[in-house]
Amino acid sequence: MRSRLLAVAALLTLSAAVPASAVSPGVTGASVLALPMDARAMGMGGAFAAVCTDASSLFYNPAGLARLNAQEIGGSFASGLVDNSLEQFSYAGPLPFTGFSGNGYASAGARLLFASNGSIEVNLLNADGSLQSSQNMNAGSDFVATAGYAERMGTSFWDLESGSYGVNHYVGASAKYVRSSLAGGYSAQAAAADLGYLAHSSERGLSLGASLLNIGTKMKFVSVGDPLPLTARGGVAYQFRIPAGNSLIVAVDGEYHVYEKQILAEAGAEYFLLKSYGLRLGYQFLRDSVGLTVGFGLRWRGRILIDYAWGMSNTLGDTQRISLTYRFAGVPASIRGRQRQQRLLDTTPGEAEPSREQSSPIEIPPNQAAPSVRPEGLPGWIY
């Protein structure tokens, strides 16, 4: 009996420690939720709460989904975490819907994450402490399914001596299903939600983002449940005005892990030349696992996106990410931003409304946010 208890304790301890890059293993369950997957964000050190313009918003700030101007499908792959393997597949894009508030920019996304924790060596001991047997065993796996929605809640306008500018306010939410297994056949599942807010002014090139992530139930493998890694994240990003065809974004994020009582920070920059060739640099502060991060991006006709990131770690070895994305069916910002109330004014009785299929897809500049347009009279119509 004693040997079995020792084996069970060893299995639980070793399995919980496998995702070694998570913060304070053992304090929270489902540590896979704290592992970033997207290469673009990782290249910027993870400073992404205010930068979000793609499907990775589902990890950092679900409100960022509202800034997508095209449908996109993609996948991300990770290496370097001992013998772990992580894969992510995602979809996100705008909806033909003005949103529940009627202010446009409605978008949705979904994400599937698969993680294998490799294998561990398990030693069974006799009552006298001598070795009874030794075997390699699957250390377990994780599966996370996420679905999110975001829209614009409204636009505010500010008049300064240097001119007037508008600020778009976006909100978003996502729901998660998490299932984890450990060596020895133990498994647990949980449900969680994320909430996000993002404010963006294209005239000023400034964005602010905030999110509360992994609000959910506990993971209970045997008798005691572990909470999910509840995290509060906030960030600011600034896009510099430089010659057309090029872009430069700098961002800073801060995050607070509630149960670990730990504060972390990230800073990063992204420069794109001729809308096609990107270079990224970032740094993650107040942690041991990863410090400096670098990455690059390649955009082909604004539709095929290839991103790579490399994180240099002092304790776990280097980690790498690669993301592949395909964008299609672009929607002009003028249509994305149209609102519900003026539908009757824009459509003459008996005249058919233009269908979305009649508008040709547009090429979306990489990482380009939709400009703010001050509405004339009443807001626009559904598209």
How does this model look, in words?
By secondary structure, the chain is mostly beta strands. It has a single domain (2-358), classed as monomeric porin ompg (Porin, Beta Barrel). The chain has five helices and 18 strands. It has helices at residues 2-17, 39-43, 57-60, 333-336, 343-346, and strands at residues 71-79, 85-94, 107-116, 119-125, 131-138, 140-160, 163-182, 186-201, 206-216, 219-220, 225-226, 231-240, 247-257, 262-273, 277-285, 292-300, 304-311, 319-328. The strands form three sheets. The protein has a 14-stranded antiparallel barrel with strand order 1-2-3-6-7-8-9-12-13-14-15-16-17-18. Strands 4-5 form a two-stranded antiparallel sheet. A hairpin with a 4-residue loop joins strand 10 (219-220) and strand 11. The longest helix has 16 residues, at 2-17. Mean pLDDT is 81; it is low at 1-25 and 342-383.
